[in-house]
Amino acid sequence: MRRCGRLWKRRSPCRGREWDRMSSPDARSARIRVPASTANLGSAFDAVGLALELFLTVEVSALEAGPSRLEFRGQDASAVPHDSSNLIWRTMEEVAARHERTLPPFALRVENEIPIARGLGSSATARLAAAAAADFLCVLGLGTEGLLEIASAAEGHPDNVAPALLGGLVASISSRPILWTKIDFPSGWTIVAVTPDFELETRRARAVLPAEVPHGDAVYNVQRAAFLMAQLARGDRVGVREAMRDRLHQPYRSPLVPGLEEILALDGFEGLIGVALSGAGPTVVALADRGAEEIGGALREAFARCGVRSEARLLRADNRGLVRASPRQEERP
Q1: Does residue 148 sit in the same domain as residue 210?
Q2: What is the rounded CA–CA span in Å between residue 123 and residue 115?
Q3: Residue 167 maps to which CATH number?
Q4: Which residue in 14, 19, 44, 121 has the fewest CB atoms around it within 10 Å?
């Protein structure tokens, strides 16, 4: 393998901005910001994801000499390794090796706002940030489609990767190449994300799903997923609550998330547009156009009645996706 070069001038294939690494004081550093995401929105299982204004930020710098190092701060910092076994570091090495390159010595500074293993796309954001960091260090020219393919292959599906990369509400198909379409989420709606105080690995949440489902259940979800996307594209809340109902994954995952059945049946709030398990869980999300704090409190109370502590976040959709810049540049799409 050949070692990646460190000084170059290039146009970023992912966002189309100039990177002049030879004249800037930040010539050998880049800041990569990737949003969290919520997948499925109930009925659109493994097909739809929404980017959220909750971020993983990675500053990567090429060093003259090793050893490479990692500093990780923020949400769940004590729960992740701070060495070469870290998911970001490992993915960077895998991406470089896939392109027959060896990473130069580097320093990573990670600031994380996203709860890990809680259903908000933390692994997808980590893999995307890592792929973008390897692309920066090794001049791989991955582009949007390259980043999407690499991170989706590692995740097993693009439903979290696509919105984290592209921003907004994204529907995707796990084809070759991956097909996707994006719309901006209604700007006046709040995403109420309530995260219980326990982890739920995606592998475990997928293990409870049946290999086959009744034809009627499949039709039930297809109808609602199609209606859901049409209404979200219009910014129309009518019928969204019904359109977010599901028979393919949430009923099977309810035993893994105490309080989920009660939460999915939540009613009595005029501002409540719809509610669903976020990805594989255990976070739940509610869409609201008013009364978001009250709705968040009701969701927390449902968890509390099951003896589970939780934290509510009132979020907006992120319509920008992955952003790359030098550490001193203003981040921009």
Answers
A1: no
A2: 10
A3: 3.30.230.10
A4: 19
* Domain boundaries, position 243: 190-315
For residue 286, give the 3-state DSSP assignment: strand
Read off the tokens for 199. 């982890």
Tell me how many domains the chain contains.
2
Q: Which amino acid is at 156?
A: G
- Closest Cα to residue 269, out of 305, 295, 251? 295
Residue for token digits 């589970």?
Answer: 308
Q: Judge if 195 and 174 occupy the same domain.
A: no
Q: Distance between CA atoms of 257 and 200, rounded to whole angstroms?
A: 9
- AA letter at 277: L
3-state SS class at 247 = coil
Kindly report the CATH number assigned to the domain that includes residue 197.
3.30.70.890
Per-residue pLDDT of the chain (333 residues; tens, 9 = 90+): 444 543 222 323 333 333 333 223 345 899 999 999 999 999 999 999 999 999 999 999 999 998 999 999 999 999 999 999 999 999 999 999 999 999 999 999 999 999 999 999 999 999 999 999 999 999 999 999 999 999 999 999 999 999 999 999 999 999 989 999 999 999 999 999 999 999 888 889 999 999 999 999 999 999 999 999 999 999 999 999 999 999 999 999 999 999 999 999 999 999 999 999 999 999 999 999 999 999 999 999 999 999 999 999 999 999 999 999 877 654 443
Residue 165 sits in the same domain as residue 234: no
Helix axes 122-138, 87-98, angle to 10 degrees: 50
